Amino acid sequence: MDEDFDIPVADEMNDEFMDDIEAPVTLKVGEEKEIGNQGLKKKLLKEGEGWDTPESGDEVEVHYTGTLLDGTQFDSSRDRGTPFKFTLGQGQVIKGWDLGIKTMKKGENALFTIPADLAYGEAGSPPTIPPSATLQFDVQLLSWVSVKDICKDGGIFKKIVKEGEKWENPKDLDEVLVNYEVQLEDGTVVAKSDGVEFKVEDGHFCPALAKAVKTMKKGEKVILTVKPEYGFGEKGKPEGSIPANATLQITLELLSWKVVTNVTDDKKVIKKILKEGEGYERPNEGAVVQVKLIGKLQDGTLFIKKGHDDSEPFEFKADEEQVIDGLDKAVMTMKKGEVALLTIAPEYAFGSTDSKQELAVVPPNSTVTYEIELVSFVKDKESWDMTTTQEKIEAAGKKKEEGNAFFKAGKYLKAVKRYEKAAKFIEYDTNFEEDEKKQAKALKITCNLNNAACQLKLKDYKQAEKLCTKVLELESTNVKALYRRAQAYINVADLDLAEIDVKKALEIDPNNKDVKHEYKLLKEKIKEYNKKDAKFYGNMFAKMTKPSSNKAAGTKEAEEPMSVDSKA
Fold this sequence. Notes:
Keywords: Calmodulin-binding, Isomerase, Repeat, Rotamase, TPR repeat. It is a single chain. The chain has 568 residues and is an alpha+beta fold. It has helices spanning 15-20, 77-80, 95-100, 207-213, 325-331, 389-408, 412-425, 434-457, 461-474, 479-491, 495-508, 513-545; strands at residues 32-34, 41-46, 59-68, 73-76, 84-87, 109-114, 135-145, 147-149, 156-162, 175-183, 189-199, 221-226, 248-258, 260-262, 269-275, 288-297, 302-306, 314-317, 339-344, 355-356, 361-362, 368-378. Strands 1, 2, 3, 4, 5, 6 and 7 form a seven-stranded antiparallel beta sheet that branches. Strands 14, 15, 16, 17, 18, 19 and 22 form a seven-stranded antiparallel beta sheet that branches. Strand 16 (288-297) and strand 17 (302-306) form a beta hairpin. Mean pLDDT is 88; it is low at 1-21 and 548-568.
């Protein structure tokens, strides 16, 4: 558009109208629709590519022809042979353009009919645009450069000059590899570096780099406009020739990054991916895995090397305690072919005692590192992988025995996983034969009871109560289920419910010593609670009836209230 046109500024725009046209406008070629509620119309002349549309702040490039409703042409970039560029949503063009072009895709051609209120108003733009004129613009969106206010405070604007790959962005723990060049506003280059690697949360050069890189994709190249608060602030960087309060222009390219994750919630097993694996599958509990690994102490001492120098890969079963806990947990997060560097704290490694390994002794309380490659794995079968009901029953029995072994060793969390998996194998038994249903029922009862015993040890009383209830739904006279549920109720102070379960268990098995002992403990607990209640209510009653300290002169001293019977 000609520069001498009287372009209204964006501040005059109705905010409600702006919100109204944010939704995508879907049209077929030749179809016309009103967008928004102030008379702006769009007719699609040619479909665009993809589904992306430009946003406020983006730098767009268009060809256009402007006409009055009678067909009189008043302007055309096509005639000049030069596309028109402007920043969208910044009031650099008439409102109808700012609003309409936001709905266009790359390569799209549309005809906009723009009422005077969204064009040049009552005054028009003499001599070409009459007063109160409705205008038509035939617009083709050639391209745009995305410009983002990445901190939403105007501190860092990012213009994408080269699109990246895929959709992932680096996270705080990741280690990124970048190229960058830093210029002052006058074009003076003050810093330049290629192939720099840094941890995102640690940052590099100035705060803007870490902020920006978290919004970028692999291979993406951007130009950043960085205000002083995200650069070097009021002090500048004298040794780097950066003056105080300098606005910087940084060209930044994200070459690649290594994904770093916390394998455990307590951040004591950390995995850095050195080479991405294949596909999406990962080993499950019980999977047979083959790995290459090199284990080192923090001073670089090599203590184990497996699967290298033409030797066979090291094979073990995941989550079966055949390797240290940290290695077990980490391998179940890996894909086939993945290479990773693990850093494992003593709690998940060899603990507080020394451990003689293949090539060296690991001292007590050592943090260790492993470079590990997952060569292959065979997943432990899930229930849906099993073709026969008998196979499911046998698998459930095997998992139950594994759970029992872990329970006896005091490893209750591992036992819980086995009992849960066993129960899942036989959860749906509608296709089982009658004899198989009986076997499945017996296994369900045993696994849930044993799981409940684990939960009591782990002090998860609510889960223990739920598991016992499952058993009682299958077998209402199961004394163990009543006994363990009563224990769970006692520990959460549901003494009335505990008493019901204990009494029912004694009706079924009057001579059960464990239940009789539990009943004795329960009665003592009830007596203790009654005493506490009596004391509480007695103190409350005493406070309510205590005489006022402001007694009238000559009145008789109030008598002490009768003491509450502690046996009440």
